[in-house]
Amino acid sequence: MKSSCRWQRSRFPLPLFAAVLGLATMPMLAAPLDARGSATEIVFASGPDDIGIVQRLVDAFNESNRGAIHVTWRQMDRESDAHRRQLVQELSSGAGGIHLFASDVIWTAEFAKNRWVEDLTRRFYKTLDREAFLAPALESATYRLRIWGVPWHTDTGLLFYRKDMLAKSGFTAPPTTWEELSRMARKVMQDSGTRHGFVFQGAEYEGGAANAAEFIWSAGGELMTSRLTVTGAVLPGVTETDSVLVGSDAAARGLDIARKLVVDKASPAAVSSFREREALQAFLAGESVFLRSWPYVYGVLEQAGFTPNQFGVAPLPAASASGRSAGCLGGWNLMINTKSSKSERDAAWKLIRYLTAPAQQKRQARESGLLPVLRALYEDRDLGKQVPVMALGKQVLTSGLHARPISPFYSEISAVVARTFNRTLKGELSGTEAVELLDKELKAIVLRNR
User: Distance between CA 359 and CA 154 in Å, rounded?
Assistant: First the structure.
C-alpha cells in the first residue's frame, strides 16, 4: 500500500506489476444491461488491480446479486498519496460518485472527523464478529471508539532477500541487525558484482515516512502517541491528546543507521528517490540483494518466475542483537461515502460483507498474496502452504508491529517525516539534527490543530 504505505504499497505502488486491462468491459464478465433492471447501482473504488482479482470478485458479486445490485469497479491512482488526493477531492465536494472505497489505514481519523464516511459501528456489531478480525487491522478502522471501516487486507513492512546470492557468499540465514545486513550486502556485492545491496523507499512521500518510522522504531525510538481520555459518559466527551516523542537519542540513532547504509554503499545514494516501484524493479532485475517492501511482493516474485530457492522473506532487522524488529502496519479498509443514498449504502454494506467473508478473503490471498484480515485464516494449513508469506505475516503482526500516528491531520505529520528522512538520507541532516527538527515541527502541527 503499498502504503500503506502500499497500495503503496502504503500500502505506492499498489499490488503487482503487469497491468490487466479491459476486464470491466468484457461481455462475459459484466452483467447485461437488461439484466440489471432496477438494480441499485454503486461504484466501488480501489487502487490498481493488476492481476484482476478485484474485478473477478466484483463480477462474482454482481452475478449472485443479478437484478438487485450492480457494482462498477473504478481504478484509483497507484500511489497512496495521489489516491488520497483523488478521494479527498471527491468526498469534500459532497459528490456521491463513489459509494464504497478502499482507504489506507492512515486515513481513518481524517475521513471520520470530516464525516465523509459512514459510522459503521451499528452495522458492524449487528452483523460481524469483532473477535474474527486481526486486532491491529480493526484498530486501524477505529477512531474515537467508533468503527468507520471494515478491514479488507492488511500489511506490514518485510525484508525480501536473494537466498541464492547469500548462499554463494557463504551466508545461510538472513540478517537480524542492520549492521549484519550492511556487512552481508557489501560481501555479496563484492563477490557477485551485484549493483546494489539493500534498496528501500526513501523518496519524499508516504512510503518514505513508513520507512523512516521503521528505522526509528527498530532502534527503540518513537514518533508520536495518541491517547483517548473519556471526559464524559457519551462519545462527544472523548478528547484526543497527541504527544510528540521523536526527540530522543534512540530515534536519532535509527535515522543515523539509515544514512550509514548509504555512506557505506550498502544502499545506493539514489535510494533517496526510490519509491516502491523503483525498489521492486531493482530487486526483480537482480540488481539488489535485499529489498524492504510489503507482503504482496511475494506474489509478484512468484509471478515473475522466482522460486523458493532463489528468494526468501524475513522480519526487518533490528538496531542491535538485543533489539526488536519493527514492521510498519499497512493495509486497506472499506469505507462508505456518507453522501450515498440509503439504498446505495445498504448495497455497499452487502459488498463489504462479501469481500471480507472467509471465502473471498482466502481467494484474494491465494491469487494476489495480500494478507487476509480474518484471524482464523492464519490457522488454515492449506492456505498457509499456498501463501507461504502468511506465516511470517502472522509473526510480525502479533509481535513486531507498529502503527503510524492516528490523527486527523496525519497527512501533515507524514509530509514532515518524509521530508526530514529524505534530507537525512542525502546527508543534509545528522540523526540528531533530524529528530530535533522533527520534534519542533511535529509539536507545531499538534498545537496548530488543537
Answer: 16
CA-angle at 225, arms to 224 and 227, nearest 5° = 150
3-state secondary structure of 274: coil
pLDDT tens figures, 237-273: 444 557 899 999 999 999 999 999 999 999 999 999 9
Phi, psi of 70 (to 5 degrees): -135, 125
pLDDT of residue 226: 64
pTM: 0.87
DSSP 15: S
Mean pLDDT, the chain, whole residue set:
88
| H-run or E-run covering 146 | strand 146-147
pLDDT tens digits along 270-321 = 999 999 999 999 999 999 999 999 998 998 898 899 999 999 999 999 999 9
DSSP state of 370: P
Looking at residues 82-108, what average pLDDT do you find?
A: 92
Largest distance between two CA atoms of the chain: 67
List Cα–Cα distances, 289 to 293, 354, 388, in angstroms: 13, 40, 20
**pLDDT the model gives residue 49:** 83
Closest CA to 161 of 217, 191, 199, 218: 199
Q: Which residues pair with 70 in a beta bridge?
A: 41
Name the residue among 256, 332, 265 with its Cα closest to residue 103.
Answer: 332
Alpha-carbon separation of residue 94 from 47, 88, 114, 116, 340 (angstroms): 21, 10, 11, 8, 10
- Coil, strand or helix: which one is 404? coil
The DSSP line for 26-45 is -TTTSPPHHHHTTPEEEEEE
Closest CA to 327 of 315, 335, 309, 336: 315
**Amino acid code (one letter) for 81:** D
386: closest CA among 368, 366, 371? 366
> Which grid cell sits at 397?
503482526
